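2024-03-11 09:14:02 DEBUG pipeline.ingest accepted 1 chain
2024-03-11 09:14:02 DEBUG pipeline.ingest length=475
2024-03-11 09:14:03 DEBUG pipeline.predict start
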Amino acid sequence: MRVTKKKVEKLKHEFNVVIPAKDVKEKIEARLNQIGKSAKIPGFRPGKIPMDILKKNYGQSVMGEVLELLVEQSSKQAFKEQKIKPALQPKIQVVTFEEGKDFEFNMTVEAYPEVPAVKAADIKLNRQKAEAGDAEIKEALERLCSQVKNWEKVDRAAKKGDATKIDFVGTLNGVAFQGGTGKDVQLELGSGTFLKDFEEGVVGQKAGETRNIPVSFPKNYHSADLAGKTANFAITVNSVLEAKAEIPGDDFAKRLGLESIDKLKEELSKQLNREYDTATRTLLKRDLFDVLEKNYDFEVPEEMVELELKAIAHQMDHSHHNHGPDGTCDVEANPKLRPMAVRRVKLGILLSDIGAKEKVEVAQQDITQAVLAEARNYPGQERKVFDYYKNNPERLADFHGPILEEKVVDHLISKASVTEKKISVDDLKKKLDELEKQDEALMEEASAGAKKSEKKSGGEEKPKAAKPKKAKKDE
């Protein structure tokens, strides 16, 4: 094999590789002989099939197999000889691959960069810490009281915001239908639990009153027998209930399973402080990433940047930033996106390198905890989440990157010089809001860049995009 380096530009390397025809022939015939041992061709016994017959039947497929094998083997050897660690799979352009001739191809690859050593002890960070005080606990308690509704019977007509206990029978053309009957069902008016016509028909009714209400079913209703039709409901109100404000005392705490109001306040304080600690870590992580980006500079593979640009564009598409001619975000028209992509790639390489050097590993327990956390996002469907990952174990790899990132961040923070500063809860919220606004402004600016490009190119200007989803605060 002959490897000739054609060009080197930053991290990009180009090679010309030539593999002698005799080596190619040996590989092809070896593979054909292997196939011939078990091949079934009429008129020949397995293992006794002539080479020309094997070539006629399997030559084309074997040529393809051998091409892939030779490219893989020769590229690995070339990288080893040139001391190159490829960042991604090399791009191959075949020059010659014909029977009886040398196999020649050009190979382009970007090398994984030399990453500077990060000295965690030299990193200086500021931790903005806030703790829940009486005002925050009081606000949380009032919010909780408003969420827990205490219903009491009232002797008046029902209005929106009330709950009613009702009996009802629905009929279509005078015939009762399946699912159209209920007994002593509690309905909160204005909740949207029932169809609009139904709920509005109950408004104004008193206990003991019965009304016949026409209810129109939407055309896309899940039951084809009812979709687009109007049914009649005989609705009897058994009682009208009004939501009474909860009094935050021991009785309220006991209904929530706690022994006293003081214990409830203690639990609320713990919950609030966990939320504040999460916010504090978000700010600290952003601070760490800013320090890493500023103090450790190196070239990043352009192909990795391009892949990240596509990922960002995909994110923007799902955030309703659809600006390209086919309804997708045009990354070429978004120069503001490139620095974002470069930053993400650089930080990813840095964190991966630190994790390898410091032997930070993702354990099976970490993956299990991540799956449990994912399942909690789907109340009532936890079993489906577990079954999904059980039946698709390869998807568990999706958790590896984010978990490793968090563990490396924790490792760096534990060794860095961290100055803690206590701030008010209001100041903590302001800092988070500022961070969020910066991220949203960046996305909006990139979005505006795409719009401007479209107008210049004569394309139709797209409607104003909706407000983007919150960008990750720790990027």
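2024-03-11 09:14:41 DEBUG pipeline.report The domain at 2-110 is CATH 3.30.70.1050 (Alpha-Beta Plaits).
2024-03-11 09:14:41 DEBUG pipeline.predict end
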